[in-house]
Amino acid sequence: MKPISDVRVVKTSESAFIKPFSILFKRGGHEIKWDLIDSHNGVYVIIYNRTRNTLVCVKQFRPGVYYKSIPENDRPKEGLIDIDKYPPSLGLTVEFCAGIVDKNKSLEEIAVDEIREECGYEVKVSDIQKIISCRSSVGSSGSVMTFFYTEVTDQMKISEGGGLEHEGEDIEVVEYTIPQIRDIITQSEVLNVSASFLFGMMWFLTNKIVLCT
Ligand SMILES: Nc1ncnc2c1ncn2[C@@H]1O[C@H](COP(=O)(O)OP(=O)(O)O[C@H]2O[C@H](CO)[C@@H](O)[C@H](O)[C@H]2O)[C@@H](O)[C@H]1O
Questions:
Q1: Exposed (0-12), middle (13-18) or buried (19+): which is 61, by Cβ within 10 Å?
Q2: 210 pLDDT band (50/70/90 cuts)?
Q3: What's the 42 CA to ligand 1 centre distance in angstroms?
Q4: How far apart are CA 116 and CA 113, in angstroms?
Q5: Reported ipTM
Q6: Sign of CA dihedral 82, 189, 184, 119
Q7: Residue in 66, 100, 145 to alter for ligand 1 test, most ligand atoms within 8 A of Cβ
Q8: What is the pLDDT of residues 58-73, one digit of tens each?
Q9: Which of 26, 143, 182, 206 has the greatest count of CB atoms below 10 A from its CB?
Q10: What region, left, alpha or beta, does residue 168 occupy, with left being phi > 0 and alpha being psi -120 to 50 degrees?
């Protein structure tokens, strides 16, 4: 992965990805204001590599995770962050291959694109199995996240993956064995993974573990 440097906090008023707004309503005659973020729906793909008995995941620098790793009293509201004191590695997450729903394509087609771009495997739409759709960030967004499952083999690997450079993506593909996954999800410290990752791992261990024993 390329080195991260010159990390600065700036105020944002316009964004193609995150749009703050509020909803006003009355409950029992009392007016309530609820602050929200309009954000894209998303797809997540749990990818099992049958050749090597591994789960294919992606590692990347997530600015929000980095920022929230800094103690609150040292987190600037604006300006440079001292990366010698707070190394960018604090913001590295492990995730499932995922993408926002911002194209006029089916969710399955978006999943296939993300698998190719991020992980370098060529998968057919018909090989994508839907697991479940649910809500994310119910207090602030309510976007729909849809989980898929697919299996790949080493023969289906067509590139290194890594994401689209013109979109600023710089993704490392990482593969975990089943014992490694068990280690990750049973740690007691704050993990640099999301609840969606933990859900997907638990789903896999519960429903597919028979493949791996
Ligand atoms: N907040 C943001 N600010 C600036 N640029 C952004 C952005 N979100 C996306 N982008 C841009 O959109 C590109 C494409 O994103 P992707 O569809 O690959 O989703 P990503 O893997 O970033 O996760 C995304 O989609 C998954 C699945 O919904 C979510 O879990 C995850 O939070 C979300 O970032 C990114 O490379 C980036 O250029």
A1: buried
A2: low
A3: 9
A4: 5
A5: 0.93
A6: negative
A7: 100
A8: 999 999 999 999 999 9
A9: 143
A10: left
